[in-house]
Amino acid sequence: MSLLIKFESKSARVKGISFHPTRPWVLTSLHSGVIQLWDYRMCVLLEKFDEHDGPVRGICFHQEQPIFVSGGDDYKIKVWNYKQKRCIFTLLGHLDYIRTTFFHNKYPWIISASDDQTVRIWNWQSRNSIAILTGHNHYVMCAQFHPTEDLVASASLDQTVRIWDISGLRKKQMPGGGVPTRPSGPQQAELFGQPDAVVKHVLEGHDRGVNWVAFHHQMPILVSGSDDRQVKMWRYNETKAWEVDSCRGHYNNVSSVLFHPNSELILSNSEDKSIRVWDMQKRTSLHVFRHENERFWVLAAHPSLNMFAAGHDNGMVVFKIQRERPAYCVNENLAFYVKDKQLRKLDFTTNKDVAVCKLRAAAAFMQPYYSLSFNPAESSFLLTSRSHNREMCTFDLYKVQANSDGNSDAQAIRSTGIAALWVARNRFAVLDKAQNVSLRDLANKELRKLENINTAVDDIFYAGTGMILLKNEDGLQLFDVQQKIVTASVKASKVRYVIWSKSMEYAALLSKHTLTLVNRKLEILCTQQESTRVKSGAWDDDSVFLYTTSNHIKYAITSGDCGIVRTLDLPLYILAVRGATLYCLNREATPVEVPIDTADYKFKLALINRRIDEVVNMVKSANLVGQSIIGYLEKKGYPEIALHFVKDEKTRFGLALECGNLEVALEAAKRLDETAVWEALGEAALLQGNHQIVEMSYQRTKNFEKLSFLYFVTGNTDKLVKMMRIAQARNDSDGHFNTALYVGDVEERIKVLRGCGQTSLAYLAAATHGFEGEAEELKGELESKQQAIPPVDANARLLAPPPPVCKLEENWPLLASARGAFDAQLLGLGGGVGGGAAAKTGGVKPAAAAFAAIEDDDVDGGADGAWGDDEYLVGEDGEPEFDEGEGGSAGIGEDDEEGGWDVDDDLAIPDIAEDGTGNGEEDEEVVPNAAPAVSSEWPNASRLVADHVAAGSFETAIKLLRDTIGVIDAAPFKEVFLRVYGTSRLSHRGWGGLGPAGPIYIHPIRNYQEEKNHLPVVAIKLSLLAKKLQKSYQLTTSGKFGDAIVKLREILLSVPLLVVSSKQEVAEAEQLIAITREYLAALLLEIHRKDAPKATPADLKRNAELAAYFTHFDLQPMHRILTLRAAINTFFKMKQMRTCASLCKRLLELAPKPEVAAQIRKVLVAAEKDNTDANQFLYDEHNPFVICSRNFVPLYRGRPLCKCSFCGASYSEGLEGELCDVCQVSEIGKNVLGLRISTLKN
Questions:
Q1: Where does the record say this protein resides (predicted)?
Q2: CB-based burial label for 645 (10 Å; 0-12, 13-18, 19+)
Q3: Bridge partners of 428?
Q4: Which of 96, 423, 616, 945 has the most crowded Cβ, counting Cβ within 10 A?
């Protein structure tokens, strides 16, 4: 037995406590005059009630109505409504402090005890006193109604306990047990010594004042506590009452005492700072719970639960004195649990619940069993009983016969031990009181103690066959029983339960308020803190952990996501999860089936695992609603998915702006039609260059100034004229003048200035722009007003806007952007999904979304089979089918010509304009010696290759390439050099109507803000290379590997000639090199494989190995899917089933299209039936490796290798100094300075 503290509060001295009958609430009345309402399950203060003047000693909840009663030292009894949060009336009548107040269980009565030596009974409906019980000659400390009979007990400092008969009062007030009658006169309630309540017994026996008295809920017994430090039991009948016995043990005044509602126990507390539990039959003390510094004043029991509360000097403690968690264990589809001294079995498949055997009697008045461990091989059980005293901890070993039922006794052996659990078919581990762990056999004979355990063990947990988890102060250690070593450890404080998933891959560590999910190596995956106690849990088939707290069923995913499944009124203990049903036990050890909604965590799991088909189906079915899922999607970076759940237009508008969906945002804005919404939409549309929506937004907000400027920059002169008329109609002089300025209408400007009274400015405008008639008129006006005529500047220039070359009707062009993982599916475009950036350079985060492949609708239908066929020979029964004499060919078509699939290229990606310099004829005129060309200064001002190439200094550029990236063959750079040189200058062949003056060169400058060291604009941009990369992706998808290699090398050789100005762009350039390297190396390997001979078994084996290596390049997801499908086809035909199954699992992780996934799952089932490999290959997928780009062999981790100094391609040792086969320009293994393309200074 132990004191299980559930909640503690800190406050002034607590003098009264009352539990709510159904809700997890407790009221405390304080010596400070405040009443507090606490939620002891959530550990929060709900409300304060402060109207009493002085200490409040009596408090009580009503059993049915939303009211409670309090009594204080201000002589007042107050009745409160906790829903209305106020006092609804006050009862006056007592002449001194009120000690206790209680409601009657059945009648609308309140009983109160007071220091005025009386007990009063009140009717709270009629709000008057109906009886006054007099007879005590000292303070009455306590008075209570009997739970069922017409009796009242009172305790007084006159050293007596009195039992009163109130049957006369009940007959008078409640005739027939019905509605109370009105009293016959006002004097009736105020009479002293009235016959309505008479003293039945006076119990004398205490030597000092009696502080508390309580009835037993069923038997005719009383218990009382006194200042003589004794707890006395009294028995009564119709004629007499007598003392049964005394319980001695308290060292100071006994403050409060009561009977346990469900057991034959007495609880008492005292000013000696202790709570004692007494055996009601033997009248002996079973346990003492001590509090260090606080005296106890009051004790209360919950009317239906095993819950108690005690008030002390500094607050209150809510506690239990025995565990209510049933002992249980689960094996496959069976759950075993203990109930009513029986071991029972529940079958989840049939819901059949039967008794297995009887159990030996355990210690009285306590939950007999702590844990249960089942051995299915021997049909044996280990049942552990725990006590706060280690000496009293025991375990029972039961051997259950096959024909045993609930009435038969099982063979049992009892031994001492803190914990016992099975570790093998015929071995179990025991933790003894000395904290040593030993192994025992089925006869309970100790075989040996476990050695090499260097710490004191507090508990042990199951961890699979031959493994146990050892709990110590620091956390848990995974101990191998056979090898006698600790294989893993984790820091997790005060773990109470460990629950393994079915595959033993994950474990949940349950502490008091913490849930920790770990993997088999005890690496922490996620941790979840709870405000209430974590009770139990179980893993479902998708490795989601469902667990219960005091008031919720929740879930936790190994990625760290968690949420609430549903709320609970009372705690449940989860046995197992089967689909959408939880099998649980309640505190009475009764099986309960709880239906749950799994949509929330299934959706998150599909999102985390990128199971696109499942996500889309859930989105379409719209089973998920609420702000929580919307917030989750927004937090995880999927606002486009959140749009599908949102009905609220404001939320929908915000999400649409976040994911850049202007069409949805426009629809929402039209429905909302608010100024702030239109302004936000206008800003977002302006960023995207959608001037049509910008125009609509400005029109709706009547932002005429911005609207006029928009028409000006888009060249819409007609609408500008309309805006000028609108400004005139609105008498908006500023707008009218500005719009006239945009239009170039000088006459209109003169009118505006004249109309505003700005005659001088109007005269200047007219005179300057040649409007002589208007100027003369205005001059006359100025002279008539005797104003000075402003002088006209002879050098003044006409202020006229340039005429628009063309009217911009379409929206501004945007760069093609990569779709997110789910965009295509959600927008109804079908097809696969794009992955993230293909490769990550060391230490560089993926930076450019534009480098992700934009996938086409159909990526698997090549005419010439460039990616291999998908004819997996699996029959209807799931068995593999092979044709006679079929070799293990790689599944590649015999026709090795480039062709692939007929894929429509959605993107019209233009190549970089290859503008050269004009080669016009030279002028025959003799000209002076030309000054040095501007470009001649560029090599001196910059160390970037692009600037040297633009200046025409190719030699220095090649030297820089040799120093920075190890170039030894510059010939492939020729085309790129010429393009950069040609696009760094513009030529003009004459001015206006003059004759040809020869070519004039203009050099666009990128750093024109600086005063010196000007440098040229370079035409090669990351955005253009990203477009070319998309074209390369399309060629790869279509199986045109030769063309793709040419395009990829062109991109790779363009990167050293970039000029970028931020670290982000440097990272993107390095990422682009990594992507092109991976694709070039992969495609070179695949072309080599297709060209290799396939005549002998050794050739076929080598071909299959190359197909496997092809799957390990870091390509885009859609291309990795294609490589895996080709490899699966090859290995399936060669009956390499284990490798084939592994490849299938890797492919399914990439979330292919539903039809592909279904086909691959079918292959996986067939492969796992015969999970062996027919041949030994040079391929170990579990050992990380890279591929030699020349010999095409794996270079496993730790093996010496060398790399290309530019592209980073890997090569076998011994190839240093040779030309790289991937980039074809740089030296293998050379030490270089590294890529230099940034204008940033270190």
A1: Cytoplasm; Golgi apparatus membrane; Cytoplasmic vesicle, COPI-coated vesicle membrane
A2: buried
A3: 422, 440
A4: 945
> pLDDT per residue over 529-560, tens digit each?
998 889 999 999 888 999 999 889 999 999 88
| Residue-by-residue DSSP string for 411-467 | EEEEEE-SEEEEEETTEEEEE-TTS-EEEE-TT--EEEE-----S---EEEE-STTE
Cβ contacts of residue 156 below 8 Å, gap of 6+? 117, 136, 137, 138, 139, 140, 141, 162, 209, 210
Amino acid, res. 1129: N
- DSSP class per residue in 62-89: -SSSSEEEEEETTSEEEEEETTTTEEEE
Give Cα separations from 759 to 568, 778, 789 (angstroms). Answer: 83, 7, 10
Tokens encoding 261: 């509602």
Amino acid at 953: S
- Sign of the alpha-carbon dihedral angle for 462, 463, 468, 470: negative
Cβ burial of 1074 (10 Å; 0-12, 13-18, 19+) is buried
pLDDT tens, position by position, 378-394 = 889 998 888 777 777 88
Q: Are β-strands 371-375 and 296-301 bridged in parallel, bridged antiparallel, or unpaired?
A: unpaired
DSSP symbols for 206-261: -SS-EEEEEE-SSSSEEEEEETTSEEEEEEE-SS-EEEEEEEE--SS-EEEEEE-S
Please provide the size of the chain in residues.
1242
The Cβ of residue 925 has, within 10 Å, a number of other Cβ atoms equal to 7
User: How far, in Å, CA of 1142 to CA of 936, rounded?
Assistant: 61
Token pair in block for residue 451: 């050695």
pLDDT band at 429 (very low <50, low <70, confident <90, very high): very high
CA separation for the pair 667, 1186 (Å, rounded): 51
Token pair for 183: 């009293």
Distance linking the first and last C-alpha atoms of the chain? 70
What is d(CA 462, CA 468) in angstroms, rounded to the nearest whole number?
A: 5
Q: What are phi and psi of 209, to 5 degrees?
A: -60, 145
- The Cα–Cα gap between 547 and 1233 comes to 56
Structure tokens at 541: 């088939």
Dihedrals phi, psi of 198, to nearest 5 degrees: -120, 150
Closest CA to 30 of 68, 66, 70: 70
One-letter amino acid for residue 194 of the chain: Q
Residue 601 makes CB contacts below 8 A (sequence gap 6+) with 544, 555, 557, 561, 563, 565
Query: pLDDT tens for residues 627-645?
Result: 666 667 767 767 667 666 6
Q: How far apart are CA 633 and CA 645, in angstroms?
A: 10
CA–CA dist 389, 382 (Å, integer): 20
Q: Three-class SS of residue 153?
A: strand
Dmax of the chain from CA atoms?
146
Give the whole-angstrom CA distance, residue 882 versus residue 462. Answer: 45
Using CA atoms of 910, 916, 920, 926 in order, give the dihedral in degrees to the nearest 10.
150
Exposure on the CB side of residue 985, measured as CA atoms within 13 A: 21
DSSP 1007: -
Compute CA distances 533 → 136, 331, 437, 526, 984, whole Å: 47, 25, 29, 18, 71
Beta-carbon contacts of 1190 under 8 Å, excluding residues fewer than 6 positions away, are 1211, 1212, 1215, 1221
Residues 290-295: contacts with CB within 8 Å, 24+ apart? Answer: 291/317, 295/252, 295/255, 295/270, 295/271
Q: Which residues contact 183 (CB under 8 A, 6 or more apart)?
A: 126, 128, 130, 189
Q: Which amino acid is at 873?
A: L
Contact of 1110 with 1086, CB cutoff 8 Å: yes
Encoded amino acid at 99, one letter: R
